[in-house]
C-alpha cells in the first residue's frame, strides 16, 4: 500500500522519505526483486520524482546503506559514553555493538548486503566499513588513549575483543540459529537484550592485565 503524504513532500524531506520507504522494500523483497515501481508506490510518490533523486536502483541501494550507517552510528556512540571505568565502558560498548548487530532489522540488512555483494561489491564494502570498521576504529581509539597503546596494537586488540564478545552471536543470528532482537535499540547509551556477564569476563580478563 502506498504511503500517504509522499507526494506532498519536496527536496530533502522527500529524499529522506523515499530512502525510508526503499529500506523497507529492500528488506521485504530482497535487492533483486525490489523495483523502482515498488519503492515509488511505498513512498507514495511518482516514479518520475523517484528518478529525480536516484537515477538507478543501484544508487538508491547505496544511499539506503548511507542512511542505515547514519542511524547506526548515532546509536552506537563511543565507549566513553557508557561508563567512566574503562573496563566497564569497553564491555558495555561491545554489548551495545552486539545489540545493534543482532537487532532484526540490522540482521536483515546484513543478509541483504551479503546477497547483493556479487552484483554490488561496493555496497558490501560500504556496509562493512559502516558496521564493523567504524566500531573497531572507535574502540581502538579509546583503548589507545586509556592504556597508552600505539595504533596497530590498539586496532588488533579491538578486533580481538569484538571477535570474542560480539561476532559469535552475530553469526548465529545471521544464520538464524538464534532469534534476533525484535525491539529497536533506543538512542540512549544503554545495553538491553544482551548477556553482559560473559562479555565482562572476557574484557576484564584481557584489560585487567594492562591496568
From TrEMBL:
The keyword DNA-binding applies. Keywords: DNA-binding, Transcription, Transcription regulation. The keyword Disulfide bond does not apply. It comes from the Bacteria. SUPFAM superfamilies: Homeodomain-like. Residues 12-72 form the HTH tetR-type domain. Residues 35-54 bind DNA. Gene3D superfamilies: Tetracycline Repressor, domain 2. Transmembrane segments: none annotated. GO terms for molecular function: DNA-binding transcription factor activity; transcription cis-regulatory region binding. It holds the Pfam family TetR_N. InterPro entries: Homeodomain-like_sf (IPR009057), HTH-type_TetR-like_transc_reg (IPR050109), HTH_TetR (IPR001647), TetR_C_Proteobacteria (IPR039536). GO terms for biological process: negative regulation of DNA-templated transcription. PANTHER family: HTH-TYPE TRANSCRIPTIONAL DUAL REGULATOR CECR, HTH-TYPE TRANSCRIPTIONAL REGULATOR RUTR. This is TetR/AcrR family transcriptional regulator.
Amino acid at each position: 500500500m502506498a504511503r500517504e503524504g509522499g507526494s506532498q513532500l519536496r527536496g530533502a524531506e522527500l529524499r529522506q522519505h523515499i530512502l525510508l520507504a526503499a529500506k523497507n522494500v529492500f528488506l521485504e523483497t530482497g535487492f533483486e526483486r525490489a523495483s523502482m515501481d515498488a519503492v515509488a508506490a511505498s513512498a507514495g510518490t511518482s516514479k518520475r520524482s523517484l528518478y529525480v533523486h536516484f537515477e538507478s536502483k543501484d544508487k538508491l541501494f547505496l544511499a539506503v546503506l548511507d542512511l542505515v550507517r547514519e542511524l547506526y552510528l548515532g546509536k552506537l556512540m563511543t565507549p566513553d559514553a557508557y561508563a567512566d571505568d574503562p573496563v566497564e565502558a569497553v564491555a558495555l560498548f561491545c554489548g551495545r555493538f552486539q545489540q545493534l548487530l543482532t537487532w532484526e532489522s540490522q540482521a536483515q540488512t546484513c543478509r541483504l548486503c551479503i546477497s547483493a555483494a556479487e552484483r554490488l561489491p561496493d555496497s558490501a564494502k560500504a556496509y562493512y566499513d559502516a558496521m564493523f570498521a567504524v566500531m573497531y576504529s572507535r574502540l581502538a581509539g579509546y583503548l589507545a588513549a586509556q592504556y597508552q597503546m600505539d595504533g596497530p596494537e590498539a586496532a588488533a586488540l579491538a578486533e580481538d575483543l569484538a571477535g570474542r564478545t560480539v561476532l559469535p552471536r552475530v553469526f548465529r543470528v545471521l544464520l538464524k540459529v538464534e532469534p534476533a532482537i525484535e525491539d529497536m535499540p533506543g538512542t540512549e547509551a544503554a545495553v538491553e537484550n544482551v548477556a553482559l556477564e560473559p562479555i565482562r569476563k572476557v574484557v576484564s580478563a584481557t584489560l585487567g592485565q594492562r591496568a
